[in-house]
From TrEMBL:
InterPro entries: Carbonic_anhydrase (IPR001765), Carbonic_anhydrase_sf (IPR036874)
SMART domains in alphabetical order: Pro_CA (SM00947)
Function, as annotated: Catalyzes the reversible hydration of carbon dioxide to form bicarbonate.
Alphabetized Pfam families for the sequence: Pro_CA
GO MF: carbonate dehydratase activity; zinc ion binding
Chain residue ranges for the region called Disordered: 1-33
Low complexity composition bias: residue spans: 9-33
Superkingdom to which the source organism belongs: Bacteria
Cofactor: Zn(2+)
Protein name: Carbonic anhydrase
Family membership: Belongs to the beta-class carbonic anhydrase family.
Positions of Zn(2+) binding: C83, D85, H136, C139
Amino acid sequence: MITGCSSKTDTGTAADRTAAVGAAATPSPSPIAAPDSPWAAFARLMDGNKRWVDGTLQHPNRDLDRRAFVAPEQDPYGVILSCIDSRVPPELLFDTGLGDLFVMRTGGQVVAPVVTGSVEYGPMTSGTPLIVVLGHQRCGAVKASYKALKDNKPLPGTLQSIAEALRPAYEAISQQKHADPVDAMTRVHVKQTAADLRSNADLAPLVKKGDLAVVSAYYSLDTGRVEVLTGAPSA
């Protein structure tokens, strides 16, 4: 049983958790309840991204009270699998705060068993209702992998493992011409990754029941906008 990063304890109303922080601190919970459905979580993220695009950020859940409130346990409403790119910080581009998201970041948002396990953690242990696989414009990892696979010249060191993980997307886009093959490869890859997670033996039952949505999306470095590609939940 995983306990070290437990999302929820065996007991605990909001009042219990607040009391556990100590008499010196009297934190209050967020005035807006956490989304408890795929649609509500998706809408919350997209509203936050609109604020990011428009420059009307609210910076929610980033004060000392919030830190104290989530210290005893966490209950994030979203899982984000994104790239390590320094220009794509999920917490900022969705205008979220402390305790709102589980975030996994790998080169080219590629997955391996340990990453899949990390993505599964929230939905399987605490009912997190949303997973977003987020690719982005001008991805260096995808660009390097595309060139390595196209030229049949492996990347140095363990970097080649990223290229191999991206090979299915490369093979898919190689079947036709694209004005920007790297961009096309990025979009195909996030769609493939989301589809794989959606059909994952452990996550598929949650998706089928409507308790979980797995969305593929694409972030524009130029505009700050997140474009949904597949899997948007319905209200």
